[in-house]
Amino acid sequence: MASLFGTNDESLAIETRQEQGATIVAARGEVNVFSSTALRDTLRRATAAQPRLLILDLSGTVYIDSSGVATIVEALQAVRAYQGKLVLAGVRPQVRGTFEIVRLDRIFVMVDSVGEALAS
To answer: In the CATH scheme, what is the code of domain 3-119?
Structure first.
């Protein structure tokens, strides 16, 4: 479970690791207009490797704005282009609400935990 790459700014910490053949990107803090670029860069690097399963662990994400949602939509499009699977894990209610407002909760696979995502 070694970290491949990560970032840490004042509002967001991102860690990437491999587990059971999946790539897991964990975002902790706020994904906003200032920090979404770091998440976008990390997700682009992750999708460039074309993992069969990409898990975005949002259990530590306390806030996400429209730029963060757009970043995740971009990752979904990249994963679908190579026929992989993107799963959002541990989405907190306040973050899930942002996805629900724009009806993206119907597009994304959301599960309670990374463990559940790995079993999918």
So the answer is: 3.30.750.24
